[in-house]
Amino acid sequence: MAEQRKARRGGRPPGRTPRREMLIDAALDLFHRSGYRNTSTTDVGAAAGISGPAVYRHFANKEDLLTAVLELSSELMETAAAEAATLPPRSALDYLLDSYATFCVQRPGLSMIWLEERRNLSDEIRERIGGHHQDYIWMWTTTVAAVRPELARAEAHVLAQLAIGLMTSVTFLHLDPRHPGQIDQEGMRRLLAETGRRIVLQTLPAELAAAVHPARRDAVRVT
After folding, report:
1. Phi-psi region of 179 (alpha: psi -120 to 50; beta: other; left: phi over 0)
2. Domain map of the chain by residue range?
3. In angstroms, rounded to a whole number, what is the distance separating the alpha carbons of residues 205 and 220?
4. For residue 201, what pLDDT is reported?
5. Three-state secondary-structure class, residue 168
6. What angle do CA 197, 154, 205 make, to 5 degrees?
7. N- to C-terminal Cα distance for the chain?
8. CB contact set of 119 (below 8 Å; sequence gap of 6+)
9. CATH code for 69-206?
10. pLDDT one-digit tens code per residue, 158-203
């Protein structure tokens, strides 16, 4: 297991070449700034310093580029989930919070592209990548439930979704640390991780718990 994690963290995944990675990075930046529909494969090649025709040696078409960009987020989530699975529940929760906060601050384009451009993928690819995202959320839910065994599974799931949603929202802030008074990346990362931690560890009011988990409704007295 340790060797597998080391392999995921270090080195280049099979099939990756320096030029292919340059194209993926360029596509990520352009899709984020200009949008998928307003970006051509020629634009991506130019941004990567690669001639238009040479792009097709690495990617069949623009959708193939979009798929490769979004698979980056899947890889990062799979790696984080695999790492969390090896840790005790509280350490796993801390790891998920810190790693996702880092992801959102350092790679905001990935979240925004998934939210805004996934409709441009084929149904098959969208479902496959979406399945990876659901697996990641399931790991969060499982971890929150392990840390807080008093919660119903539905409650743990809602709290996990709220924490993830809050951290993902930083995608739309367009942070620029050069702007006077703007919070820097490290400050934002710490703020997101700590706020997410408070969300998943908060005690739900009885009325809210009943709304989330109807089976508990009979035990709740609303005054």
Report:
1. beta
2. 16-60, 69-206
3. 10
4. 95
5. helix
6. 65
7. 53
8. 126
9. 1.10.357.10
10. 999 999 999 998 877 655 555 555 678 888 899 999 999 999 998 8
At 90 the three-state DSSP class reads helix
In CATH terms, the fold of domain 16-60 is: Arc Repressor Mutant, subunit A (1.10.10)
Mind listing the pLDDT tens digit for each residue in 90-102? 999 999 999 999 9
76 touches 114 (CB < 8 A): no
Q: Is 175 exposed, middle or buried (0-12, 13-18, 19+ CB in 10 A)?
A: middle
Burial class (CB in 10 A: 0-12, 13-18, 19+), 119: exposed
Element (H, E) at 164: helix 153-168
- Are 155 and 212 contacting, i.e. CB atoms less than 8 angstroms apart? yes
Tokens representing 182? 């703007």
Contact criterion met (CB below 8 Å) for 202 and 148:
no
Query: pLDDT of 122-159, one tens digit each?
Result: 999 999 999 999 999 999 999 999 999 988 898 899 99
Q: What does the alpha-carbon distance between residue 22 and residue 19 come to, in Å, rounded to a whole number? A: 5
Contacts of 216 (CB under 8 A, 6+ apart): 152, 209, 210
Half-sphere exposure of 15 (CA within 13 A, CB side): 5
